[in-house]
């Protein structure tokens, strides 16, 4: 393995993007939340249209 000179070490740039795992995890959690909300709304609409709602009495 070659040794890199001190001056050349300052020019090394790494990484391909600035997106961290925390940001990706936050987006995934938002998507999961939207999917769950959509399922709840869809289920409610289906039950309303089928007139199979439990009474609140």
How would you describe the overall organization of this protein?
Helices cover 58% and strands 0% of the residues. The chain is mainly α and 57 residues long.
SSE order = HH
Helix content: 55-70%
Number of helices: 2
The overall strand count is 0
How much strand?
Answer: under 5%
**Helix vs. strand class:** mainly alpha
Which regions have little confidence, pLDDT < 50, spanning 5+ residues? none
Mean pLDDT over the residues: 84
Q: What is the first-to-last residue Cα distance? A: 79 Å
Question: Which descriptor suits the 3D outline?
Answer: rod-shaped
The radius of gyration over CA amounts to 26 Å
SSE arrangement:
Elements: H1 6-9, H2 21-49
Question: What's a concise summary of this model?
Answer:
With 57 residues, the protein is mainly alpha-helical. Helix content is 58%, strand content 0%.
Structure keywords:
single chain, 57 residues, mainly alpha, 2 helices, 58% helix
């Amino acid at each position: 393995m070659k040794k890199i000179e001190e001056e050349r070490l300052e020019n090394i740039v790494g990484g391909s993007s600035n997106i961290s795992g925390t940001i990706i995890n936050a987006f995934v959690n938002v998507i999961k939340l939207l999917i769950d909300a959509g399922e709840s709304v869809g289920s409610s609409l289906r039950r309303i249209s089928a007139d199979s709602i439990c009474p609140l009495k």
